[in-house]
Amino acid sequence: MKIYDTKTAPTPRRVRMFLAEKGIDVEYVQVDIVSGENLSPEMRAKNPLGKVPILELDDGTTISESTAICHYFEALQPEPRLLGNTPVEIGLISQWQQRAELYLFMQVGMCFQHSTGYFKDRMNPVPEYGKEAGINAQKFLHLLDKHLAHSTYLAGEQFSIADITAFTAVDFARVVKIRIQSDQVHLQRWYDAVNARESARA
Amino acid sequence: MKIYDTKTAPTPRRVRMFLAEKGIDVEYVQVDIVSGENLSPEMRAKNPLGKVPILELDDGTTISESTAICHYFEALQPEPRLLGNTPVEIGLISQWQQRAELYLFMQVGMCFQHSTGYFKDRMNPVPEYGKEAGINAQKFLHLLDKHLAHSTYLAGEQFSIADITAFTAVDFARVVKIRIQSDQVHLQRWYDAVNARESARA
Prior knowledge:
2 copies of one chain form a homodimer.
Chain A: E1 2-5, H1 10-22, E2 27-30, H2 41-46, E3 54-56, E4 62-64, H3 66-76, H4 87-116, H5 127-147, H6 161-173, H7 185-195
């Protein structure tokens, strides 16, 4: 089993952090996305969308999309649970995971891609949309700060995949100059707690 | 238990179809998103993001985000399984669910919102981005057609949540004039098979 990874990119970091929380060691193979190694025919045979991370099993089966890779490992080794146990836990963690993914992680990513033109060789950046995406991300951080005033982690008292998604998004947001504001004390308290975990170094 | 629903919108349709496949009956409460009923203080107390669908349990717990509601019901009543059973099934279904969500469903939604200005009272449409999103959706339909040449459903031989997400996206795509092309015979074969299921009327 191996994972095609890019150490500097925010999406594969989510998987590394998830696996570190579970204490699962996997071989990582570095892919240079700046030079477009992820778009080679060999890599497209593993993931036609040309993205990392990709999990490759020993029988050649490949699974892409960071959330999907996490679902695979949660099913393979349930403890410690990062996707919940009871139906309500599973539902609430999935809710916060989706919110963190769609309204924060993706917005930061779109802000980065459309504002900076970093991947302009392989997409058409629309700077005006990049700006909107950045505003959306900031709005979600505001909502998150209010929520974290009465919740230890995103989905309650239990650390989960939703925290990994939001934490890696907040860290990456620095590249587009989106930061936790000085009055967002609950968000900062949560960030510091997640950042203190060993998995944050994975 | 009840679900706050909007009969005409594509996202809540995913949950109705999922529950129809499982044979689960739930009370649906209609919310008028055109007049902004979803943005009222009462609805924002249930989902601060002001979106439907929302599942409300008898103890008042609310779960939003269609995928999260599906995860809740899969845990509550596993059969028939729409999110997979073995780790590999779960991983591959989640992979196709994420792809259908991010590269098709969301792209169609962004194309609609940014091209038509339908929600311009509550967001800033960027028509140039709407066009890009439409191109992204069409690219994914092309990829899906090639994939379905050798796969009955998105994640293999088994109907899953990924088919529901892609099917509801293809149906909604008509409003932005994105349709299955006449040479996309595999995609059309799949669409017809899903459309023939009773759950497609839910």
